[in-house]
Hints:
CATH superfamily of the largest domain in chain B: P-loop containing nucleotide triphosphate hydrolases
Radius of gyration of chain B: 25 Å
Strand content of chain A: under 5%
Oligomer: heterodimer
Number of strands of chain B: 21
Structural class of chain B: alpha+beta
Number of helices of chain B: 9
CATH superfamily of the largest domain in chain A: MetI-like
CATH class of the largest domain in chain B: Alpha Beta
CATH topology of the largest domain in chain A: MetI-like fold
Order of helices and strands of chain B: EEEHEEEHHHEHEHEEHHEEEEEEEEHEEE
CATH class of the largest domain in chain A: Mainly Alpha
Number of domains of chain B: 2
Strand content of chain B: 25-35%
Helix content of chain B: 10-25%
Order of helices and strands of chain A: HHHEEHHHHHHHHHHH
Helix content of chain A: over 70%
Distance between the termini of chain B: 47 Å
Radius of gyration of chain A: 27 Å
Shape of chain A: globular
Shape of chain B: elongated
Number of strands of chain A: 2
Strand order of the largest sheet of chain A: 1-2
Structural class of chain A: mainly alpha
Largest sheet of chain B: 6 strands, mixed
Amino acid sequence: MTSVTTTGAKSPPRILQPRLDNWPAAFILAIIISILAIALLPPKASFWVSLAACALAAASAVYNAWGRYKGGLLVAPAIALLFVMNIFPLLWSLGLSFFSYRANRMKPPAFIGLDNYEKILTDPTVWDRLQTTAIMAILTVAVQMVVGFLLALLFSKQFPLRRYLLILVLTPMMLSYVAIGAFFRYYYEPTFGLLSQFVRMFTGEPFILLATTQGAMAGIVFADAWMWSPFVMLLVLAGLVSVPKYLYEAAAIDRLSGWRQFWNITFPYIRGLLMLALLFRTIEAFKLFDVVFLLTEGGPGTSTETIAIYVYRQAIQFNKTSDSTAISYILLFTVIVLTNLYLYLANRRAREA
Amino acid sequence: MSQTGASLSLANVSKFYGRVRALDGLTFDVKPGQFFALFGPSSVGKTTTLRTIAGLVRPDAGTVTIAGRDVTDAPIAGRGVSMVFQSFALYPHLTVYDNFAYPLREAKVASAEIDRRVKETAETLKLTHRLERKPSTLSGGEQQRVALGRSLIRRPSILLLDEPLTNLDAKLRNDMRAELKRLHRQFGLTVIFATPDELEALSMGEEIAVMRDGAVVQRGTPDELYEAPANLYVATKIGSPHMNLIDATERGDAKSFDTPFGIVGAGARAMANAKGKRILGIRPNDIRLARTGDTALAATVHLIEPLGDVTIVSVEANGQTLRMVLPEQQAIGMKMGDAAPIVIDPAKIHVFEAGTGEAIR
Lengths: 353, 361
């Protein structure tokens, strides 16, 4: 990436020197042009002007890299695709969250500053949905961590059929959300679902799990935990098998009890991975959508409507495009803050240890 | 800290790993307080032997007796055995202090007593300034001493050391050799250590068991092994530079052999009326250059390796070579191809059966 060739002899451009290989200047120019175009021109014109500005910035970056960073140029198509499919929509929606805009109206977006954010942060419905999400996330992550951890302890031992059972246990993780949703809809089905049949053997009444708030919550948590416990197990298992065997032998000679062996030998090896699993699963749980949508669609009432489903309804069903982008950004911000806080604490503990 | 060593004996111990025979009728015994070496190249079953004594491995056959008690199927606890692993096996997430203290905490020793013993052990091993450190921040020698300390602190009656010096650099090895002997004297416990290094075995072991294919080939003091190796295997493993081996045939006159170097006298170990093939083992120290008047064997200088105070000279005759150790002055001026008549001390020649490799005494 740092290969220096003949063109590399050129001196790097000064900050705002108008040269074609001055790509930082081109980027700044493109951003300024885009903002001005969005603010001043009609939407159609502004779109094309912004696009042209972006293309100019990209061309400048490529020109600068040509002959100098050949390796970098090779990954450029991938980066370009990522930019078009991912980064651009992300930034576009960030911009949109400061405008009043509905996708089903022909009216151009109107700049309203932080109004969307103000509206959302003062909306009790949003807070209610966030609360639902938090409860569900805590429950499902807790179940996943405990079950995954116990499964890992089990599978770290050798026993007959271990390999085949391991494959079976890992299967849920590989299924698609829709398949899981369909499975559990049938399991929970009141008339012929397995769960209802089972309960009917004792009570004689059909059992409608998803009809009550607690039942629906339990059903969702169970399905999600069923799907993702193997993920936690996989990470913890990786930690467990990385513990050198001789440490257990030394512990046996030192006659350390099983409990002490676990805390002083095993646990330090899996602590980091447990934290990682917790982090991944918390972020995922915060975005919980598929299973909930397939099982209850947020019902009964709105008692299991997570913030992700709320965003979906706002954006797709009610066409409140710019409102929903604002919620999305609040959500993203929350997850980033939580993640960093968590990583900070985890790192600090790792340093102390 | 006063400890007393226990006696140990293994009788016909065998262990299979699948179809691999790790120990094959292993038998030896160790006296209380002895510093005992298990010597042999890698994968002859030294580690398995130690693990069997510790109780980490259950033998498939045979008995292990510690201090007169059959412990073959006894649990690890209660054997009074502790072991230092080749990799040291320190608990990486605990400080040196905790590495020392945990075995005691488990034994429900009062915490003041634990503290006293940890400090005492650290003192003995010169680790006092390292007590709050993690093992990974220590040097190899310090880690070794921590592993030793952790083993000693519970006051075992038998200490097992699995290749204790292999993971240390050359200078540290010399220091630790002395250190181990000092600790052995201080605590008076029985020490059994495994080593693939003949120098370690000879310099530290009061007695040595030479192992091969999971069994003891010969057992004795370093002198016994050096002076009277039971077979070619022991003869070539013990002694540096290695023993010379030359092909020979009995002359049938009960006093000499035919060799590529001519007729070699070997006293009583040559047989009358026999014509068998033999292998003669001659230590490089037992050969000297002939002086005028000696009945010498003809040979030519083949290779000269000056080592400072001594020079190793290889002499050759009819395609076989002999290495000899000469004082440095005698080798001065020697050139390759020079005639170098030699004399071999007949009393020091070892005679081995050519087929089985067993010594003929």
